[in-house]
Amino acid sequence: MLTGRGRGKIRAPRRGLSTPGDNVDFDSMWAVLASSLREIHTKNASKLSFEELYRNAYKLVLKKKGEALYEKVKQFEHDWLSTEVRGRIRSSLTGGLLTGAAGSISGMTANERRVAGEKFMKALKSAWEDHNLCMNMTTDVLMYMDRVYCTDNRRPSIFAASMALFRDCVLRSPLVAEDPTTVAMILNSVILDQVRMEREGDIIDKNLIRSCAYMLEGLYETEEEEESTKLYLTSFEPDFLDESRVFYKAEGASHLRSSDAGTYCRHTRKRISEEQDRCRSTLSPLTAPKITSVVEDELIKRNIREVIDMEGSGVEHMLDNDRIGELELVYELNARVDPKKEELRRALQKRVVELGSDVNNAAINSSQAPPPQPPEVNGETRGKGDAKPPAERPVNQQTAAAIKWVDDVLQLKDKYDNIWIRAFGSDQGLQTALTRSFSDFINAFPRSSEYISLFLDENLKKGLKGKTENEVDAVLEKAITLLRYIQDKDMFERYYKKHLCRRLLMGKSVSGDVERQMISRMKMEVGNHFTQKLEGMFKDMTVSEDLTSSFKDKIAKLGDPDQKRIELAINVLTSTMWPLEAMAPSTSGEEGRARCIFPQAVERVKQSFEKFYMEKHNGRVLTWQANMGTADVRATFPKVPGKESSKERRHELNVSTYAMVILLLFNDLPPGESYTFEDVQGRTNIPTNELIRNLQSLAVAPKTRILIKEPMSKDIKPTDQFYFNENFHSKFLKIKVGVVSSGNKVEGTEERKETEKKNNDSRGGTIEAAIVRTMKQRKELSHQQLITEVITQLASRFVPDVNMVKKRIESLIEREYLERVEDAERPAYRYLA
Amino acid sequence: MVLKKYELEATLHAEKREISNGRLKDENPLDVSKGFQEMCGACRRGDLKRCQELITDGVNINARDEYDYSPLILASLCGHYEVVQLLLESGALCERDTFQGERCLYNALNDRIRNLLLKYDYSKSTDPLQPLASHITSLLIRTHPKTSDITLSTSGGALNLHKFILSARSPYFRNKLASTPESNGWKLSSAIPPLAFDIVIRYLYLGEIPLDLSGICESDEEEKTLVAGIDKLSKQLGLETLLDNILGGGDRRLARQRRTEEVTRGRDQLEEWFREHVLKHKVVTNTRNADDVRWDRDNAIFADVLLRADADVDTDEEELDGNIESVGPEQKVRTTDGPLNGIPVGPVRDPSPPPEHHSYPRTSTLFPVHRAMLLRSDFFSAMFSSTFREAQDTSHLQIIPIDCSPEVLEIVLYFIYTEKAEFPLDLAIDVLFAADQLFLEKLKVKAATVISTLGNGTMTVVESDNPRGMSNETEPEIDIYDVIRAGWLTRVHRLEEFAARYLAYRLEYYIDEEEFAELIRESAARIKARQETDSIELLDDIRYYLSERFRLRFEDSGIDEMIDATAGDESDLVAAQNPDFKLPDDEGVDLKGPDDTSQEPKKPDLTSEGANAFDFSGVLRTLDGQVTGDEFSTDAQNYRILLGKIDTLLERLKLDA
């Protein structure tokens, strides 16, 4: 087929492209197009033939008349817009608007202004819509020109060009000669005026404004049509933002004067959402972030400080009165302008520290207030505390203060946690701030470690009795929370150990489970090293139980049928783990070390156990701590001679080891005889103060007056005589004789100093260990680095005093663990292997 | 990632097995037909024109010969850049990671060809039918302008469909709609899930159908009902292959292969439908009465618009207005009373040309077509989307005149309906312009390809020997001036290149023509219109091809030196340096200078005269008539002379270059 036809040479295209010079009748073709364009603009397009128009335009472009055609179309549009469209818009203007744009709008009521503005905007809107419609049709017809001529010659498409014309001929041209006011200016002022009306509460035609905003969004400064050069962004938006800024500045100032903080915040939030709605429904979403930031700047940033600090309604007021909703609002607003919420945080921290200091001061005051009851009674109360419901009697003043302090702190914490969750959306930064504030005031209170430990002690001893697991958990959790705040954890450890020791030895703990649970919580919270010793204490207790029973077995096997056999329950305590000195705080020097002389029977048992123990563990030294033991003694009181009904009475007395030793003394004494205080001391070798206390409980306390003191008084004097009280009477079979113990009361100032000193000593050791550890690793280190390193290492346990660290370094140098580097620029040390 | 050799061999083996099992279609089947052998020959020689002709004749360009060579491998091996380009544009495959593809790349003679091959890597090139398929698929969701003429209601909603597509694709609809062309709705039983309809309709509209139904069904049961529904529907509608396609499994290559087959089948169905209905029912009528033709909306072709093209006015035909049989308009109105299922041939003229045909000065042809298909052209898309007259609903079909001849319009429509464009050289420029006007880029490219291949840009060995007995007809097939101007006007750069090359290889014929000077002036003006540069694009191109034309001989020895040296020395030198230098069989064997013929009148006379000047005299002469010693010096001198002439021409035109 191809070869057959191949002969026929390609014919010149049939219609008119033979030579470029060949004249198309441009004028007549343009005339056709022009009249069609006019038809399109007057909305008579339905009779026009697309094909014909397209063909005409196509030919013109093909004949290199694209340039002329393009210009002609532009000219046509220019003329049309400048005459027809502008005229129509001018006629829509009511007189006031024209002058209004230039200066202040005067002489018109709001309603008149609104009506006039709407009329104007309607005219503009319909002009814009018509123009768009026409230009879409024109673009269709001139498609070939757009694609070929405009692309080749880098001209903007006819649509873009005509949009620019609309901008220049309609929006940007003065309406009246000699008056620089343009349509765009009037439009701006009309829209702003309407927005102002709406802000003041009037109803306006949002859709109308929206379509005008659409128009501005569809127009660009240049023909490249870059996004950033939208007329909306370049000519309208800045005006709008300025106007809004002025408006809100004034509003912020007046509201600050006239309303309280809560109202102010509510109003601000309302304004922000209003503005966002306005951007959505009336203006352009593009503006939303900008206008929001204007409102934020003017209403929040500028005034937030004053609002938060507002007297009688500010954040302090809200916190105190649990105004969760308002706090939430403040938080939300502050978060808008400041991701760190600096102002709110400041107010919050200030308030927490204030309240915390109040709690601290209250605790100090109550602990320093003169105790309402004499200490003796206190001691007795403590001693009997277990048998009686604690609420019936006032607990030790100090302890109460401690527990109150802890409760107050926990309450405060609860309250702020609640606020934090409900109002501050669990904000991380605020949590840190709260933690810091709590930590600040807790650590500012010198007795916090002791009080917390006391609180735990109290709970573990009785507070937790009969509580469900969840409640127990909650209490423990609270305690741990407080522990978290404490910087000097070693202090806490010391106190806790002391209290634990007493609970264990005296069997006062409510539940071993809970104790262990507490230990494991602390382990998780603070670390292994912290609980090591505490765990060791528990271990000793179990080992001792085994020991006791195996000793009992052994005695039983010996087959010694001694009726008066003494049963021994023993606790072997590792001396490094237990705070033994705590048990006898006032015991000092050799006196404490002096051996108590046990009665024969007891001494035998003691020796037999020592033998038994040495068989198992060779080379250990057992030191008997008589001051910590208890004994059950079966006592027989003779018939009261005066009373017929009376008979011989047997009682089981639960007494301390010392009391047992004292009582046994009276076994050997004939009735009616007495020992003086010195006699007793001489025969037993019990340390003086212990002896005094034991004698007090045996001879002074009214319910356990097994001995009679002569003369009868509350104080024990070395010259006092002691008789066996044959007339002792009690309705109970078992009697517990409490010792006036040092109890778990708050330490006195003396004791505290003692504790601190010990604590410092042990800190010294820890610090030295840390220094040596560091230096061993680094070999050589500057002074500053070493200090930093040590402090970081120890931070989890306590905050070391720099001076103490320095002293330790000195001492290590003396002991030749370290040496100074001689010629170093900065002071530095070297480790000596 | 290029596969290792053994991996490649393994895949090749696996592929072979698959093919012998009949699972896969061989992408490069063995072909020992004469046509294919000729194709291979043409590729070896670089005979661009022959290649194009053979491709048009339907030779499978992806087949292989008995030595496993495919045309593409041959062309790239022999270094024929233009042939490689033509093959790739016509759909030859060169896929990396296949045996044939890697072989092709490996064999490429130079980097230029290799890069060309890589550029056409299969993964990037699309199925040539894809534009058609995606257009038809897009009709399903396209709501504006409205083109649908039948609504299918299912329980899941309504689908707006097109009768002509349904008829073309499904025998069921063809029969049904042929009997009731006016029906505009089709209700479906609610027993079949709507999703099944969706899939079937997508299939009919050449859309991608899901490979794996389980992915879109929530349960096995649902899937079963869906498959049953599709099965039932496809039986009802007479679609044998649909279910196979769905159940065929997910192998990528198989799926691609099935899809290609399906789209091809769809295209063929559309083509058949187009021939059977649109072309068969086109109406030839007197131009004057063409606009009076009334065509009902409800017709068996389901056409919704008529395109009119007026035949050329043949100048040799006499205008015999008086003889026109005037046919009253009332006769041309097809009455709606007639049976609707009949072929609604509107105008009452017998389609076969009556004997007095010659007496009609001008005829117009009306094509009943579908707007849905016309939308492929932006021109029609804008037209039907606008509010102009053409887009309005009228009681009878709108008649839209198109500014081209009926033959060209037919080609355009053929392309729009079927993606096929085959047309002879003599229509190519008209097609080019029509495509440009209607924004059919692919058709433009096609037209440009036809011109630049069949127009014979390079005179190849074969051709100058005896290209199919054409050598005695020396009349050129094309008017190169028209071609280049058309290239300029329609912005087809390929044609500019082609024309420059064409001119360069025949410069001696054209250099002295006044029209050539005019052309140079135009080219200069074109460039100056854009930006102020001193070069003239066309001349630069011509110079480039001129040097290419002569470079064959001057390679390695330096052209300038060649030109300045005396003829005798030079030839010795060249002969000594390139003892086995192959002598090109260009037309330069004996050229009698145009000096002799420059006084002759213009084309086409010149060409015939020129031909006379080509008698083989056995004497070597240069263009200025000097007798020279051998062919080398002839060429050197000719080259110099031609360059000189260009300079003279520029001087005369007062252009710097």
How does this structure look, described?
The complex is a heterodimer of chains A (833) and B (657). Chain A has 34 helices and 9 strands. In chain A, helix 21 (448-463) packs antiparallel against helix 22. With 833 residues, chain A is mainly α. Chain A has a 3-stranded mixed beta sheet with strand order 1-2-6. In chain A, strands 3-5-4 form a 3-stranded antiparallel beta sheet. In chain A, strands 7-9-8 form a 3-stranded antiparallel beta sheet. Chain A folds into 4 domains: 66-229, 5 helical Cullin repeat like (Up-down Bundle); 306-530, no CATH class; 546-739, Ribosomal Protein S5, domain 2, CATH 3.30.230; 749-831, Arc Repressor Mutant, subunit A (Orthogonal Bundle). In chain A, strand 8 (818-820) and strand 9 form a beta hairpin. With 657 residues, chain B is mainly alpha-helical. Among the domains of chain B are: 2-125, Ankyrin repeat-containing domain (Serine Threonine Protein Phosphatase 5, Tetratricopeptide repeat); 132-274, Potassium Channel Kv1.1, Chain A, CATH 3.30.710; 282-420, no CATH class. Chain B is 52% helix and 5% strand. Chain B has helices at residues 5-20, 34-45, 48-57, 71-77, 81-89, 99-107, 111-119, 130-138, 163-169, 171-179, 194-204, 220-237, 241-247, 252-279, 287-290, 329-332, 371-374, 378-385, 406-418, 425-437, 441-454, 461-465, 480-490, 493-505, 507-510, 514-530, 537-554, 559-564, 567-577, 594-597, 605-612, 631-653, and strands at 150-154, 157-161, 185-187, 283-286, 305-310, 363-369, 399-402. In chain B, the strands form 2 sheets. In chain B, strands 4-6-5-7 form a 4-stranded mixed beta sheet. In chain B, helix 11 (194-204) packs across helix 12 (220-237) and helix 14 runs antiparallel to helix 19 (406-418). The longest helix of chain B has 28 residues, at 252-279. The radius of gyration of chain B is 30 Å and the shape is flat. Chain B starts with a helix and ends with a helix. Chains A and B meet through helix 1, helix 3 and helix 7 of A and helix 18, strand 7, helix 20 and helix 23 of B. Chain A: InterPro entries: Cullin, Cullin-like_AB, Cullin_homology, Cullin_homology_sf, Cullin_N, Cullin_neddylation_domain, Cullin_repeat-like_dom_sf, WH-like_DNA-bd_sf. Chain A: It comes from Xylona heveae (strain CBS 132557 / TC161). Chain A: GO terms for molecular function: ligase activity; ubiquitin protein ligase binding. Chain A: Keywords: Isopeptide bond, Ligase, Ubl conjugation. Chain A: Pfam families: Cullin (PF00888), Cullin_AB (PF26557), Cullin_Nedd8 (PF10557). Chain B: Residues 317-362, 578-611 are annotated as: Disordered.
